[in-house]
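Standup notes
- DV: blocked on the single-chain target, sequence here:
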Amino acid sequence: MFKSQQIGTPVESKQSERIKLIQQALQDQKAIHLREMAALLDVSEMTLRRDVTRHPQTFHLLGGHITLAYDPSDAPDYKVTEQGSRHVEEKRRIGKLAAAFIKNGDTVFFDCGTTVPYVIDFIADELEFTAVCNSLNVLLKLQQKPNCTIVLCGGTFHRKNQVFDHADESSILDSVRLTWAFISAAGVSENFGVTCFNFNEVGVKQKVLRQAQHSLLLADHSKFDAVRTAHFATLEQFSVVISDKKIPKHYRELILKNGAQCVV
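- DV (later): unblocked, structure below
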């Protein structure tokens, strides 16, 4: 694999990487606008249009949207619930910002949910890191990274949120020292803290928050001022919060007041 990359020119290598990222994006939705994908890849729409038209067996360009040339139902399905189709553009941008924090040799916990897989999409294939996870949709993404060592917290599989839950799970996490914990949330409230939908997620989230050197919260703007069933943390427990530009100003100020980074 590495020899073939060395043979190609830098231009060809960059184009190949763009094609791969487009394919990964289309695993999560049936179409993506050319303008949105060009912005994510930091190239012009014309450059991306040329990339797509050079691969007619892989992509179609329909009304300014990129789609897969084959039946999208043949692609792996990484959606956890109907939440997977909401605020996709914001989640993808959050993923790109979050991936930049991961460095060679890091050990990272990737939480369950629909935002976290977008982080993995933007991790460079050559990066060597250890990933700890407890959900199926995240595991399926991580196995695409050739230099990633994966530690799966196994146990009973819960179909609703695709999480593995086991009474002995804590013993696995006890033996791991995390550089980063990438945590997702369904609700973030100043008064009621950080919450999720399912109680079977709480124990692991709280454990990794205690174990990690740095805790990073991933939450698009729709999660703020929302309160869900299961409480697992306070906003003050996170050293970095990554959201989008629509995050309420009040929360941006609150995060900074807590001494954390607010990245949008």
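- Follow-up: DSSP finds ten helices and 15 strands in the chain.
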